[in-house]
Every structure is written in C-alpha cells, then in structure tokens.
Amino acid sequence: MNGDMSRERRPSIRNSLSSRLLILTVIFVMLAEVMIFVPSVARYRVSYLEQMLAEANLAALSVLAAPGNTISRDLEHRLLRAVGVNGVVMKLPQRRMLLLAEEMPPAVDATYDLRGAEPMELIGDALRTMIMADGRTLRIIGDARNAEDAYVEIIMPEASLRAALLDYGWNIFSLSLFISIVSATLLFLTLRWMLVRPMRRLTANILAFRRNPEAAHLPELPTGRGDEISLAAHELAEMERDLRQALVQKNHLAALGAAVSKISHDLRNILATSQVISELLSDSLDPTVRRLAPRLIQSLDRAIELCQRSLKYGSADEPPPRPTRFRLRSLVAEVGDTLTLDASQSPAWKNLVADELEVHADRDQLYRVLMNLGRNAAEAAGEEGEVRVSANEHDGHIAIRVSDNGSGVPEKARENLFRPFVGSAREGGTGLGLTIARDLVQAHGGTLELERTGPSGTCFRILLPL
Ligand SMILES: Nc1ncnc2c1ncn2[C@@H]1O[C@H](COP(=O)(O)OP(=O)(O)OP(=O)(O)O)[C@@H](O)[C@H]1O
Ligand SMILES: [Mg+2]
Question: Where is the Histidine kinase domain (predicted)?
Fold first, then answer.
C-alpha cells in the first residue's frame, strides 16, 4: 500500500462540506430576502406618500375652513414646512384650487398618480428613487378624503422621500443579513451534526479497514439512525464482515497450499525409496509379485511426477495440460488394472472403448480424471457390482462415460457435488476427487457432469473437444 495514500485525508476548509453548505445557505437566504426586499420597499414608498397626501389634505381642509379661504402668509409657510411639501392643490368636483404654495414653487420634474398604479410600476419608481440622486421635484396625486371625486396634489422634493427609502432599505438589509447569518449558522450546525460528522466516522472506519482489514475493532460506524447514511454504514459493515471472512478463508487456503507443498516435497522422497524397493521386487521368484511389480513401479512414477509438478507450481493449482495423441482404450485398461489389483474385492471392470479410438489430451491428467471417477464408481458398485467405461465421438466432441450399478449419489453429496472439501458423503472421503477431475477436464476445454444417478446406478460424462 502506498504510504502517502494511506494517510488520513481531510478536505481543506474551503472544500469541506460544512463550509460549502454555510456559504450556500447565506446565498440562498439573501436571495429569499431580495425577493421580499424589493416589493416591500415599493410598498413602503406608497404608504409614505399616502401619509404625506393625508397630511396635505388635512392642511388644505384647514385652509378651506378659514374665513374667505385665506390664511396668513406666515401660517401658510408653517403648514407647508410641517407637511414637508412645496405646495398643495385640491381638486373639488367643480373647481381646482391652489390652496398652499411657496412664493416661488420649483418646476415639477415628474408626476406620479397613486390612484390605480400597477405594482411593477410602483417597484420601478421606488428603485429609481433609491438609485438615482438627481434632486427632482415631484408632483404626487392621490384621492382626497373630504369628498368623492376630489383629489389632492402635492409638490414635493424627491430628496426627503429618497432619504426615507434608503433608511428603510438599510434597516431591511441589515435585518436580512442578521437573519441569514443566524439561520445559516443553525443550518450549518445541524448539517454538521447530521451529515458531516457521520461522514467523518464513515471515512475513519473505511481508512482503518483499508489499513488493516483483519483488525477486530474498527472505529464505530454511524448505524442505527435509520437515515441514508446509517443505511450506507450498515451495508459497509456487512461488506467488511464478508471481506474479512473471505480473507480468513484465503489465508486458510494459502496455508493449506503451503502444507501441500511440504507434503509433496517429502512424499516425493519417500516414494523414491519405494521405487527402489519395487524395482528389486521385479526380480522376485514369486510370479504374482513379478507380475504386479511393473504396475507398482508405474504408480510410483506417476506419484513422484505429481509431487514434482505441484512443487514446481508452488500451489495446488494444476499445471496446464500437455496434450498428446494416444489410444483411450489402453489408458482405461491401465486405470482398471490399478483399481482391480485385488480382484476378489473389486467390481467387474468393463472397458467398452473401441480399440482404434484416439484422444488428444494430457495422458497423465486424463488418467487422474478416470482414476477419480473410476474409484468413486468402484466404491459405489461394491465387490459384486460392475463399472463400465465407454466412449463415442459426437458433434466434434468425444464423450467418455463412467457408469456403475451402485445405489446412486446420496442426497447430501448431490447438493455439494464438485465443491472442494464439502462434497464428500462417505467416511474418510475428502470431497476433492470430483473437484480435481472437473478442474482437469475444464483445463482441456471440456466438461464433466453427472449425467444420471438413481437407485440403479450412476453415470458421469466427460466431454472433450476433439
Ligand atoms: N459413482 C458414484 N456413485 C455414488 N456416489 C458417488 C459417486 N461418485 C461420487 N459420489 C458421491 O460424491 C461424493 C464426492 O465425491 P468425491 O470423489 O469428490 O469425494 P470423495 O470420494 O468423498 O473423496 P475423495 O476426495 O477421496 O475422492 C462422494 O463422497 C460420494 O458420496
Ligand atoms: Mg472420490
């Protein structure tokens, strides 16, 4: 493992989930505030102007109430100052009256009629007043309160309206900023608690597992909260458990492989000694011993070869086949001879392979395949039974069948057939025979299958490409 990679990595402050969330929250809250801000400023302008119109209306009414509709110049001045306008005009159904005015009213730059103005218009007007500072004089028109059909007009400087609007806008803005910061902080803390912290724990667990997958104790995972993260944590925990199990199994197999190598090594030495002795046996005076000695030598040769090959490959994996062309019948006969050495305790061995049939395969490996199948069949058939081996060409393949008239593959074995170590259903069996046979056949590009089994016997079929 790369040392640099295994160091715990943390995102920089700028990239961390929490600070990104913080910034985004501030932006979103501000955005929401802008949407509130613009219409409320327009609304504020309207109510400000309505307020002024109302005051002007009141001042106008006081003039109308005076005898001869006139007041002193001084009072007029004071009224105008109090309301904050340059002049007030009132339109009554029959006449239009300039009721209050400065001696030199400034020229009007823009007229706004509040009666029935559109909302968008109001918003635009408010923004213009806030942004532009061109010191205009405005004429504002609104309904009068004293009579129907009457209206009031005021002439006023835009500056006072602008100052009020800016003041109001600033208040809203600082309030929004305050609200957004408070809500962003709350959100930040919540998300940190709900998302970022469990994520960190998840990461710490993954890192620890990566460093040492076999460690019994890893940092605790944020499970048990029922949300998406705890679901992920749950799955992670399961995956780690499975991986750990697989790892234990793999270590187990590796240890087994080493053991096999050691056994092969010493077995080869032992077999070599036996080989010397069996060569001496071929000079024996006993005719039976003399007859069987070559077969013993042949078996020992094969055993030594097998040990050497598995040593060379260093593991229990089979070396690739080294195919040659040979007559199948003689190989089947060899297997039969070996399996029925003690004729009195062996089933009958029927070699039904045609004399001229040739196969192209690794002879030693095919011998082992037939040996494993033949031994299983002989065990199933028993002394009284019969084992048959037949072969025929079919569809570019050669099918070799090993059948017996035993009592069939037991239920327990059938479930785990071809699975190493667990496939055996007999005393002293390792459950490796069929696995080895299938591996060897598959290395030849062929298949090995249980073709039929039942109370009347069993048949395994090997299919080899021609
Ligand atoms: N021809 C057969 N008839 C009945 N049962 C069979 C036959 N061939 C295999 N079996 C069953 O399948 C099981 C698995 O066979 P396999 O050859 O893989 O292992 P094994 O014979 O138990 O042990 P070993 O590794 O020593 O061969 C056997 O235990 C046996 O119960
Ligand atoms: Mg077997």
Answer: 262-466
